[in-house]
Design goal:
The protein has about 325 residues and is of the alpha+beta class. It contains twelve helices and twelve strands.
């Protein structure tokens, strides 16, 4: 199903999307129709400067949401899309896939097309913040990536991981028990807390100048990312990847590190260990089964790499 909605003056698309799919409204919650899936969306609006949308649902069919922006020049907000942030260990539906946990940061126009695959549980938070708001709260931070987010006139995209601190904040938000009269204020505090955690991770990146990036290069980089995710048992060949992306190797290396905060192989190894932790915990595979499934022929090497990324040896991690 393809849905087109128009975002006028940066007012958001939550209720427009709900109307398009025939969802029912229950207070501040929007319930997904039973014929399309299960779960809800909800949101908070603190004027033009800060908004937050929470998604906690799955869909029985794929929906592609295309947002057309009709926003005055200079009013475009920065989007922080935190996917897979809520705990999936209590997932009731074993046949549903989980979102890949990460934080995607871009101007509103860059994130205009949102694909929601079928049989995937979406547990995400989207924060929309004006640059004036961000400048007021984070303008004193000195880092090239922060400067791009706050003031660059060029197109940018940054992605970082979901940290344990973000998961804790999101969990507190989901399981809060406060009077309804305080909900709006409480969620604003938690929203700002999430932004602090995001900028904290950005400050840990290497301080290299961030250059503008063309939308076609963004698409190429994400095609590379999904290729790496789909081939975790095979080490990436930078030369062939660059050729397929239509980039030189130096350009690929520079833009990939700028966008994801890691080099291609470093990012591949990071995703590999994230999948290893999932296989050990959620699929209950043995250490040897996990290592071999991810392409390791030497289990001692797998154990060392796992410990470097996760902080524990795989056998000890699986026993927790």
């Amino acid at each position: 199903m393809k849905i087109e909605v128009v975002d006028k003056n940066g007012s958001g698309i939550l209720y427009k999307f709900a109307d398009a799919i025939g969802a029912s409204v229950r207070g501040r919650f929007i319930d997904i129709p039973k014929n399309l899936g299960e779960g809800y969306m909800t949101g908070f609006n603190w004027g033009n400067d800060l908004r937050m949308m929470i998604r906690n649902y799955y869909l029985k069919e794929e929906i592609v949401l295309e947002r057309k922006n009709e926003i005055p020049e200079g009013r475009e907000n920065v989007i922080f899309f935190l996917s897979g942030i809520f705990d999936s260990s209590v997932q009731k539906h074993e046949k549903l896939a989980a979102e890949q946990p990460n934080v995607f940061i871009a101007m509103q126009s860059v994130s205009s097309v949102l694909s929601m695959p079928q049989n995937t549980f979406f547990r995400s938070i989207t924060i929309s913040a004006s640059r004036e708001y961000l400048q007021h709260h984070f303008g004193e931070l000195k880092h090239p990536a922060v400067s791009s987010i706050l003031s660059s006139k060029n197109t940018f995209v940054f992605e970082t991981e979901i940290s344990p601190a973000m998961i804790t904040t999101a969990s507190e938000m989901m399981h809060q028990s406060i009077p309804e009269s305080l909900e709006n204020h409480y969620h604003k505090i938690k929203c700002e807390e999430l932004l602090c955690h995001i900028f904290s991770l950005i400050l840990q990146r290497e301080e290299t100048p961030a250059s503008g990036i063309h939308i076609k290069d963004i698409k190429a980089l994400y095609a590379i990312k999904y290729h790496l995710q789909s081939n975790l048992d095979k080490a990436p060949d930078i030369s062939s990847i660059a050729k397929q992306a239509g980039m030189s190797e130096p350009k690929l290396r520079k833009l990939f590190r700028q966008t994801f905060g890691k080099g291609v192989f470093e990012y591949y190894q990071f995703m590999r260990m994230q999948e290893a932790s999932r296989l050990l915990k959620e699929e209950h595979l043995s250490v040897s089964e996990t290592g071999y499934q991810l392409g390791f022929t030497n289990l001692s090497h797998f154990s060392r790499v796992f410990e470097q990324h996760i902080g524990l040896k795989p056998k000890k991690y699986s026993a927790l």
